[in-house]
Amino acid sequence: MPVITNVDDLKRLHRRRTPKMFFDYCESGSWTEQTFRENTSDFAKLRFRQRVALDMSGRTLVSTMLGQPVAMPVALAPVGSLGMQSADGEIKAARAAAKFGVPFTLSTMSVCSIEDVATHVPDQAFWFQLYVQKDKSFTDSLIDRAKSAGCSALVVTLDLQIVGQRHKDLKNGVATPPKLTIRNVWDFATKWSWTFGMAGTKRRTFRNIVGHAPGVASLGDIHSWSAAQLEPRLDWDMVARVRDRWGGKFVLKGILDPEDARLAVKLGADAIVVSNHGGRQLDGALSTIRMLPSVVRAVKGQTEIWLDGGIRSGQDILKAVALGADATMIGRTYIHGLGAMGEAGVTRSLEILHKEMDTTMALCGRRNVREVNRDILLVPRDFEGEWAEKT
């Protein structure tokens, strides 16, 4: 086993151990992938101020998200087909998150169902992410199932009314489960630990959908159903209806524009997630870290602001907090751990992030993550540039 010291180590192991189509599904964006790349590269434009001769004992990264204590200001973001990265992947990730003390968010398009995950983690240990469907009764049933399973928050994704084109996914023929083509069978044969894991589980399709959605009784029905069910008419009135049906902690994900942030606050969101779907939707949109300051100004402390997209290290998390995020959501960072080493890999990714964040915070002269602000950064004058909202 190689020595794992950073997320890139997990990424390399993930690439070796997981079929190409699922690794590429994780490491790709839409069209030219400009936004996908800049989500990460724009973090590097922010530099830290090193401070010395300060008492750095008794440090803590403990924070809260939606009033819930967390070991650090991080939640695991919802990821579709997570159970294709590693057998029973959603369960493994949820268990690792619960043990570490951070929330896990289950995707509507998960391989393991809401009920599957609920039987493997403590009560209130995970959240549910909702895609609003054209079939309102099915959308309602998903909300009700999440309530019954004890999910403590509902995360509604707003930026997938229409699917952005992802060239790698189309060329790889991504499917859950994957089609048995000659190329795929050869790939699986070289990824024997993944193949044995999949052979040992019955969870190989979208279990929140099959057997629950009307007309979707088997795997053969799901592809045509899912293509027809995304709701292009989704508007704020529909979002309000979902909020009222849920009646609990309510998070809106996919906010990138300050005006949308204001509308989300007006709707009563308990948190908003500054996100561009990991660069997988509107290619050419600005990175989330560049848009964060203008959203923070627009909201002015009226709700929690979380940042999603581009985070590859604990230093990136600290930079997001310094620019005004109350917390962050991570996706690819923990997927690399899951694909590399299963549940242990998710735990290792969280350990790495925690260590990097703690060490960097200390070298910047802070002992408590709640004390971190823009003063720890050197921000280029043109970081927001012409795109910054004039306030």
From TrEMBL:
UniProt KW Membrane keyword: no
Coiled coil: none
Ranges of residues in domain FMN hydroxy acid dehydrogenase: 1-382
Residues at which glyoxylate binds: 25, 131, 166, 277, 280
GO cellular component, one term: plasma membrane
GO terms for MF: FMN binding; L-lactate dehydrogenase (NAD+) activity
GO process terms (BP): aerobic respiration
Superkingdom of source: Bacteria
Keywords assigned: Flavoprotein, FMN, Oxidoreductase
Catalytic residue list: 277 (proton acceptor)
Segments traversing the membrane: none
Binding of FMN, residues: 78-80, 107, 129, 157, 253, 275, 308-312, 331-332
Cofactor annotation: FMN
NCBIfam families (UniProt xref): PRK11197.1
Family statement drawn from the similarity comment of this UniProt entry: Belongs to the FMN-dependent alpha-hydroxy acid dehydrogenase family.
Stated name of the protein: L-lactate dehydrogenase
Species name: uncultured Rubellimicrobium sp
